[in-house]
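EI: anyone free to look at a 125-residue chain?
SC: sure, send it
EI:
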Amino acid sequence: MTGLILTIDDGDPLITYQPPGAWTQRNSSTDPTIATNFYGKTLMTTRTPGATMFITFEGVNIAVFGSKSPEHGNYSTNLDGIVGRGSGVGDMQYNARVYVSQTLTPMTHMLTILNQNTGILDIDY
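SC: here you go
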């Protein structure tokens, strides 16, 4: 049996961004490059240290995509208490993996991604 793959865009209410005002949704009307490079023609972005994205989901895998560039920074991840680190620093790349899990037990999970510094962190889908 094949599992269902569900794509959740950055502005979906299933995703929570904290603290208020730390994240900005950019879209194709404010930046034409977003129209061709980002899913749903939108992305959420921050440069605020400590800004956090939360998602609670039921399933056996999760992947989060954004972009990378020389202006991006480091971030930490926490999936059900398992802490990891990531970096968005690199050559310009769209549809870049911000996070991907291993196979999980089928149950409710919580993923948190926290911006570590003043570099850019963006969430596309």
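EI: The CA atoms of residues 57 and 109 lie 5 Å apart.
SC: 👍
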